[in-house]
Write a structure and sequence with these properties.
The complex is a heterodimer. By secondary structure, chain A is α/β, with parallel strands linked by helices. Chain A has eleven helices and eight strands. Chain A is elongated, with a radius of gyration of 27 Å. Chain A starts with 11 loop residues before the first helix and ends with a strand. Chain B contains eleven helices and no strands. Chain B has helices at 7-20, 26-46, 49-65, 76-97, 103-113, 123-132, 136-147, 152-159, 163-184, 186-189, 210-214. Classes of the chains: A alpha/beta, B mainly alpha. Chains A and B meet through helix 1, helix 3, helix 4 and strand 8 of A and helix 2, helix 3, helix 4, helix 6 and helix 7 of B.
Chain lengths: 290, 215
Amino acid sequence: MTGGPGSAHVALDTLADVEEGIAGTQVVVAVETHLQSCSECNERLSRLRTTRALLTTLPAESMPPTVRERVDTALAQAADERSRTVVPLAQRRLRWNSPAVAGTSAAAAVVILVGALVAGHVIHRNPTRHDTSGAAGAGAARNAAPSFSPAGMKEWATGSNYTPASIPSLIPKIVTGTPSSPLFGAQKSAPGALTGGTVASPAPTATARAALTQEQLRDSPQAVLQCATALADGVPTVPVAVDFAKYDGKPAVILALPTPAHPTLLDIWVVRTTCSSSNLDLYFQRVSRP
Amino acid sequence: MTTEGTADGDDDRALLARHVGGDRDAFGLLVERHRDRLWRVALRTLGDPDDAADAVQDALVSAYRAAATFRGESAVTTWLHRITVNACLDLARRRASRPTTTLSDRTDAETSAVPGPFEAADTAATVLAALRRLPMDQAAAVVIVDVEGFSVREAAEILGAPEGTVKSRCARARARLAELLSELAPGVSGNPAAGNPAPPPPVQRHVTTTREEEL
């Protein structure tokens, strides 16, 4: 019947499909008919139901104290790293809204801007709908010439296929190697691109808050910086290297970020679809810095 | 099972928002609410306490760092479970890709650790041992749905797979578990040992992720 060639009985897989409601009508009818006269298959069905019952009654163990301790330690370390550099959201907003931002260093303006981008605030503000100070702040930031340098960022399009296993061997190549040609060359002479190792783009507009696609990352070094900053939990971060390549055979952007407080390590992030839609699209691995 | 739209769900979202806003205590409170369930999912999916600890730690640190990317399209608990399941699958793949710990080695080690029919004194331990012999995607599905009680819809979000795929994986998993339990502990599954004279062949633990299938 459905138990395989030469079998008159119903296979466990088929019974499980019927129980789950994913078997076809004909199969369901045949199985029900067969069950009316087959004690062996009724026994199998009983075994299947018992199995499910056992799964639902497994004891609810708590996380062991030793595991709690190591998780808490790891989270405390992450908190410590964050606290050294992150400007609280309220302060970011305050500074952004202040006209005084026009007089501060351009680098500070960009830091505030990127932080606000990551937190998902400020950028959606339309100056025509807000108070004067907000408009003045936004205008000042747009006119500022951001000057924090991504000169250390190596840009690659190796097309290499990264996997969890190959990351430790591929990362040293993009971190210590020298790219043969600038990846963002087409944009370098245009406003809004890397120029002489600096970001000279205008401040991102409202569209920048949307999830950055791989194409956007490819088109704009500033998008790469925004993505890196988002991945670094809001800490303005310049990647050590970025590679437009593959992960498990599919197009992906590989970012090697410095690990806060750990100069001997690198945080490797793999952007598989978009940078900020959800961290579920991301893959993270920490490796030793080559 | 879901906390979506409930007071708990609202609290989860508030805690996550506070964390993103710079509140140092908020994430710890969120972890306190979910850590035991995340631990159980990792332990039962991976079958090894050390691996489960690694996976949960990786998952929670990832969630801590990437909290700003949470867009609120699902419940926070669903989001945390999905990160944890992904960490489990990534860890299993890393283990499998190590030259010194190949997939077959791991399978052999697991098989040797499974209690035999006459050693299985504890039903729960036997069920957990059987779970370890499932392919990873089936183990994750049946743990999320049957053990943890998530709906198929929620499980689909957590596993990043269509609902039909989740149902199919659960059905395969239950059928395989029923076989394994009758082999490992005939009395537990309510099936006489004589009813299953030929032991099933060893199962190679597959570490194919749901994301590979979906992307």
